[in-house]
Amino acid sequence: MAGETGNLTPKVQIKGVEKVYEGRNGKVVALNGINLDIHDNEFICVVGPSGCGKSTLLNIIAGLHEATAGEVLVDGVKVEGTGVDRGVVFQQYALFPWLTVEKNVMFGLNLRKDLTKLQREEIAMKYIKMVGLEKFVHAYPKELSGGMKQRVAIARAYAVNPSLLLMDEPFGALDAQTRTQLQSELLKTWEEERKTCFFITHDVEEAIVLASKVVIMSARPGRIKEIVDIDIPYPRTQETKMLPRFTELKNYIWNMVYREYLEVQK
Amino acid sequence: MNKKKKVDVVSKIPNWAWLLLSLLTAILVWSWLSSNPVTSRAFPPLTKVFGSYVKMANDRGVFWGDIASSLTSAGIGFALGFLFGVPVAFLMAWYRPVRNIIEPWIQFVRNIPPLAYVPLVVIAVGVGRAPQIIVICIATFLTISITVFQGVINVDETLIKAARVLGANDAVLFTRVIFPATTPFIITSIRLGISVALTTLIAAESTGANAGLGMRIRALSSSFETEPMMLYIIVVGVIGMLAEKILKFFERRLTAWQEKREI
Predict the structure, then answer these.
(1) B163 touches chain A (CB under 8 A)
(2) What is the dotted CATH code of the domain comprising A2-82+211-265?
(3) What ipTM did this prediction achieve?
């Protein structure tokens, strides 16, 4: 089945998506005419000023919000509500504070009837090891730092093996050092499996070092302004940020985003 | 420097010693009040207050019966209030129509002193144990339902989202996310409920009860027997403190995961 459609059908098709909120001061158009195809094994980073509707778009793909118009297809199937084929990592970690690291990672696995307890534990352990937290298996979230919490959240999202990973400014609340560290870890993980990824950030450097494509959005109403191919080959590391091509791309994208930012200020 | 040293001394004193110190201070203040001519009539010497135990327990033989009666009424009333209050709180949080209809009732009845609706209860069910239980049940129900309701609507929205994207349906969401997230509020509601059950005793036992702490406090007050009355008041306070200790024990086990400010 997959062979028939092959790589011709995009993994995600966003078709004419529009989102209008009924605010107290009338209608607010958060998203307007969004069209975007995301292909298998792509790492898409979305950048844009605050209020450009990046998070709204992610929530619509996740099935947490409904689009006012248009539709999103994942593997050719229209998105209606959430599904385990789409994993989400939130900026605010969203760990269950009453569950240990292991139980948090197992949350999604525990909802699957086809796995034995042992299998679930094995899968959870695999991803806890992947994020390097094997020493904290039985710790509660309150005992972890921000960076560790987000590692647990990433392991939890990976554990249910979604075919699409949605990340909503996952490193936005972390300090600069932890942030670069988690970027490197995410790059390493991603380069192994190349799981299709839709990643929101307002950090242009972060977008370029991670993404195969950067989507620049404009604000009010949220629209796609430009899509920039990041032609720096993987594997990438923090040293990628030293390359002249990186600087070039950064200046270009930063300029576009900055202009949007000025628009919003007006 | 000086201040830091003081803080060290404070943190070195163990909790039981603090409790002892608090008790000694209370006794000291009480002794002063009972030796002061202005307040001595309201605060008889503690020796006499505790001495009146013999009068109540041996001569009249009602002391332990009063405690048992009040604990029965308060216990059953509280249990029923909790049993109704928690589901109603969840229903109010889950279904908007339920909330819109029931919440105003609760807010309305909540501020009426129980003593005011005691006659209605007696007219409805007569005298005896039943009206006592009903009055305590109403009072605890109101407190518990409002507290738990606040807890449910304050559950972090992103936790619900996180559970949904991991494949949780409504039933899973309720049992594995909303319910555990609400536990701290349920424990708080129990704490407030116990307090309400005890403070409602006097009203509840003014329904023609023939035993009970509240009923006895009223009776002793009208016969101007200050010493045994004070003894009974102290008993109510001690019961409240013991209940709190037991609750603390369970709270530590159930909500150890919670991020708490160290004081």
Answers:
(1) yes
(2) 3.40.50
(3) 0.89
